[in-house]
Amino acid sequence: xxxxxEDDDIDCRAASxxxxxxxxxxxxxxxERRLLAHLTACSMCRNVQGQLGVLRDALRKLGRGD
Length: 66
Known about the structure:
Elements: H1 12-24, H2 29-41, H3 43-64
């Protein structure tokens, strides 16, 4: 897992929480900026983001009865 380099940086645990929260509602601009900065540097969290997107899309399809 990546380590925060500055006071404004977030670690993977915080990024995970923000990724989860972003599934339910838009993030506040500060949180979104911090998450995007972390995702730029962390391939593991980008992978988690991709997996959450696949899961979200599959659940939407199930809800529509596709």
